[in-house]
Hints:
This protein is mainly α. The chain contains eleven helices and no strands.
Amino acid sequence: MTFWIFGIVVFGYLVGCLHGSVVAQWMSGVNLKETGVKNAGASNAMIVLGKRYGALVAIIDIGKGIAAVIAVRLLAVHFGLPADYVTLLLFLVGAAVIVGHNFPFYMGFNGGKGTATVIGVLFAIDWRFGLVALSLFILIAILTDLIVFGVIMLYITLLVMAIWMDGSWPILIAALLFIMAIWKHIENFRRIREGTEPRIRASFKKKRQKNSE
């Protein structure tokens, strides 16, 4: 059991370190860690580089969450592991991918905030919860004009999914990820209080004006 857990956590972390922002930097020449809100994620890519780069980063970061969870699921089926153990492994690898995205070793352990990656993890573990989470993320982000509140809903959905699956360890893992998400977004909440947090509609408007010039 220890071997499986250790191997899957290491695998998930390394997959999580594969950043879409690195691809965006290679294509655009812009380091997202040095501009905008200085976050290596899809939301900052959209704010700084526009919708196409935001979509590119999101696809890569969502994809790695899906790929890691599916790989572990297939491996577990191949070895005939018990269902409860499989659930634990899926949550473990999902958490490891998110942690790898947020704390990649080659970025000084200061990467993104896990938004796109947690969407991928949700879809891969249970596509129904993935659809619900993505719908709530979009709805809340649009209604509040702030991405951060949509992001928090993603982690709440992950916690609800863990409770629905009735696994004590998955619940603990999801709860710790939720706490991590709050901690990673403290700066966002501070900017909201100060009125300086980038708004979604303002970002789109800014890009349209720039493109028309």
